[in-house]
């Protein structure tokens, strides 16, 4: 079967978890003897379209304005044009290369017009891999008013994005319920957890040596750094552990909240935390292999219950997970029931600190929870399970 994957960011240059997830899914489809084409924007190519092969996957890159690490207004404009540019630049390729199935990843929410045209052109079904709910997260964070012109604009494209999906895969049980209750979409939907390939790397202490951390227990946060991740909450934890001389925090990634993070670190004059610019996927894996505890935080005002993709890398490398989440998020039950880490509610600083200290001072607990995190990956968040679910669902459409 020929499968077309549409995603707004892709390997090898991308540092995003979404790009890595979709690449690992594509590789799994290749292993199952399917033929894969990835359609993705690229602001760096010189021409209008560039077709190449990457690890047995055909990648069709079309010219686009930047949608990563730019101002919110510029990003909104360039994302709004994704479908138009993809169809305009790749029209000939689409007509000469029909596919049997379309998979598209959201965010971005602006793929709907392209999917509509491809479904009509090829007469095929489409599967939407829906992760974070935008623009709902913007509304929750107070960045956009829901009943405003820009709010209605985003809602319209969100609706189009859902409308042309024959099946929608949603990342957690509570998010699935929220989606069914809130959106009342007529399209069928199902639970589709995030996934990762179980390919750990062996530590060579590159970053521990470079940062002089060989005698430290290191809490590691890696990935997107946005308003939804509540950097003030993280910095508050770091500050409360200033006197724990054998503890250190390492943060790496990119996003709109990096400036908030670095300013808070400077304001508080914190020496027990290091921020590093984003690195390649290969370097990121090295970091994961060297550090001790996988860290994440979520904004307490969120009404949805996403499972951050960064947790997958922590699980691959057998890291116990330390998290702070919005109320009623599935993660608390998923991590807690599998004894893979310690979770608290954002705003409960006392429990967040207590959990951090428990992992700091109990080597056996870190080891046990790290092993359980790996089992959780293998049993629930494997790329084989995800690919099977997608293919079986599409077979039954």
Give a written overview of the molecule.
It is a single chain. By secondary structure, the protein is an alpha/beta fold. The chain folds into 2 domains: 2-195 and 382-395, Rossmann fold (3-Layer(aba) Sandwich), CATH 3.40.50.2000; 206-380, 3-Layer(aba) Sandwich (Rossmann fold), CATH 3.40.50. 45% of the residues lie in helices and 19% in strands. The chain has helices at 17-31, 72-80, 82-96, 112-122, 136-140, 149-163, 173-183, 206-211, 231-240, 258-268, 281-290, 310-316, 330-337, 349-361, 363-380, 383-395, and strands spanning 2-6, 35-42, 49-54, 57-63, 101-106, 125-130, 167-170, 189-191, 217-222, 247-252, 273-276, 293-297, 321-325, 341-345. It is globular and about 65 Å long. The mean pLDDT is 92.
Brief write-up:
The chain is an alpha/beta fold and 397 residues long. It has 16 helices and 14 strands.
């Amino acid at each position: 079967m020929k499968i077309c994957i549409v995603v707004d960011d892709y390997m090898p240059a991308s540092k995003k978890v979404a790009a890595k997830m979709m690449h690992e899914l594509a590789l799994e489809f290749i292993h199952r003897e399917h033929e894969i084409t990835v359609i993705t924007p690229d602001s760096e190519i010189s021409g209008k379209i560039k077709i190449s092969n990457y690890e047995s996957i055909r990648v069709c890159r079309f010219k686009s304005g930047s949608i990563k690490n730019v101002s919110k207004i510029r990003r909104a404009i360039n994302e709004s044009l994704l479908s138009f540019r993809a169809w305009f630049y790749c029209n000939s390729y689409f007509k000469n290369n029909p596919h049997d199935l379309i998979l598209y990843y959201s965010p971005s929410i602006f793929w709907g017009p392209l999917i509509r045209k491809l479904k009509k052109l090829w007469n095929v079904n489409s599967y939407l891999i829906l992760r974070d709910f935008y623009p709902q997260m913007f509304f929750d964070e107070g960045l956009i008013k829901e009943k405003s012109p820009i709010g209605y604009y985003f809602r319209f494209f969100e609706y189009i994005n859902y409308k042309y999906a024959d099946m929608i895969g949603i990342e957690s049980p509570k998010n699935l319920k929220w989606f069914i209750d809130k959106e009342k979409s007529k399209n069928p939907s199902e639970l589709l957890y995030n996934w990762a390939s179980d390919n750990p790397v062996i530590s060579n202490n590159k970053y521990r040596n470079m940062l002089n951390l060989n005698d430290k227990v290191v809490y590691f946060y890696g990935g997107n750094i946005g308003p939804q991740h509540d950097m003030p909450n993280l910095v508050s934890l770091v500050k409360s552990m200033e006197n724990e001389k054998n503890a250190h925090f390492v943060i790496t990634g990119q996003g709109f909240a990096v400036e908030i993070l670095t300013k808070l670190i400077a304001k508080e004059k914190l020496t027990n935390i290091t921020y590093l610019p984003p690195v390649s996927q290969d370097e990121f894996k090295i970091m994961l292999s060297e550090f001790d505890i996988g860290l994440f935080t979520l904004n307490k005002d969120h009404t949805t219950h996403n499972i951050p993709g960064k947790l997958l890398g922590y699980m691959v490398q057998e890291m116990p997970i330390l998290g702070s989440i919005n109320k009623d998020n599935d993660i608390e039950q998923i991590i807690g029931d599998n004894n893979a880490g310690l979770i608290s509610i954002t705003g409960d600083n006392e429990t967040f600190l207590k959990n951090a200290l428990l992992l700091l001072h109990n080597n056996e607990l870190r080891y046990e929870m790290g092993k359980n995190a790996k089992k959780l990956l293998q049993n629930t968040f494997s790329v084989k399970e995800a690919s099977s679910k997608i293919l079986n669902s599409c077979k039954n459409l």
